[in-house]
Amino acid sequence: MDQCANALLAFPPQDDSLNTNETYNEAALVHVQQLGLFIKDRSKELVGFSTSLLNILDPAIHSLSYLAVLHQLVVPHLATSVPQAFVLEKLVTFLMKFDGRQCRYAGSMLLDILNAVGSRTLLPPSVAVETLSSALLKLDPSATMFTHLHHTLVVLAYTTDVMNPALPVIDSDIVYFPGMANQETGQYLCDLKLPPYAYISRSTGLADNVTSSMVLEYDFLCGMIYCTKRDWEKARVAFGRVVTYPVKEAGCSKIMVDAYKKWALVSLLSTGSFANASPFITTSTHKIFNTLGNHYTALAATFASDDVEKLLVEASQHAHIWQEDGNASLVEEVLATYQKWRVLSLRDIYTKLSIAEIRKATKSGETGQALPTDEDVEALIQTMIIGGMLNGVIEKNDDGTKFLTFLPSVVYQPEAEFDEECARIMERLKGVGAVIAATNQRLGTSKDYIKWSIRESRRDKSGEAHDAVPEFESHIDDEDLMGGVMATG
User: Fold this and answer.
1) What is the distance between the alpha carbons of residues 28 and 371, in angstroms, rounded to a whole number?
2) How much is the pTM?
3) pLDDT tens digit string along 293-306?
């Protein structure tokens, strides 16, 4: 027992000898190698003394050693010689407290544990989602690296209706994918300045294969989660990522068509209109969307007009389609918000308008009629103001007439608040700058981009007119810019 404990407590040392990346890396590699030999030769001792060892070890300090013991108790199945409740308690404690820097050296041991948590066989959904989300953020605080565990997390969160703990992960913008071209690895895994792709990869054992279907389903389910949370703007962005996903050979998968239909509806809820175009959608894919989603684009076009009768006809005539597509509730939301967007459209004409005039000028998208009383209109406007949808104020004249004043969209801040906002923006720009630099480096060394650049430079000299984006897309080879993460229909 003492010999086991001493070996497991050896890293990190209690002194400050690991004060550089080089010394930390060397010591971590040695410890991992010793753990591997220890597990190979004395695994029975680890299991036999596991209760005492896990009580001695601190998961936040001795993360690698703690993980080695846990791995013996959890993978490939829960050990029967140790109380299950004890093992699961220690598992949760580890996932919430482990040192992300140290566990960059954990490799497949950590991945096995996280896969087991995501399998739904160990922990209740509420705990599994929270611990998996916490673990992903500890490994990658920026949350910009996509892994198969992101897909596991979002499926688990959505299907079990435990969504809030997953939001810190899915709210972050994905920038990197495992296996992307020209991803450099760092000299030392422990270097805290490394981008996540430098230590989360198949070669380090911290990432598994990622397929295009995983990425598409991840973004689709993110959109569904945001719909459940009624965060229409984030839902619009998430479905938009599915719709604009790179495709080959005029391909378009079913999930992209499903996302397009929801994208149209949540766009109406988020912005009051639907721009049925994107420079990132190929012409052939756009034709498929228009054909299979024509009823949705027709509904969106009518939504932007004052013809409420036509809107109701569009909604009722194709009710069976909304139902079959699983979008009936979203269409109901669209009809319910119609009048709010008609009220907002009045600000393009008026700066001030009486409540009675607003009642005459707008109609409900649910009944097709004006609201029964001015009080109902006032209540509608108040909900818009409170919800942040409308920047305005309801005032009363001396004669008792109430009117809505539309306020400027630009809010003037005190100098101190403005300075703080500028500082926050500068911090975000620094992060974006690093992403742009990495993207430019990958793109600039891509053989497809180099071929395209040479071809375009020749065409520029000849004065030949061309459309740059389609020309580039049409010459993408199998080794694409996304490192194989490409939908083929």
Assistant:
1) 70
2) 0.87
3) 999 999 999 999 99
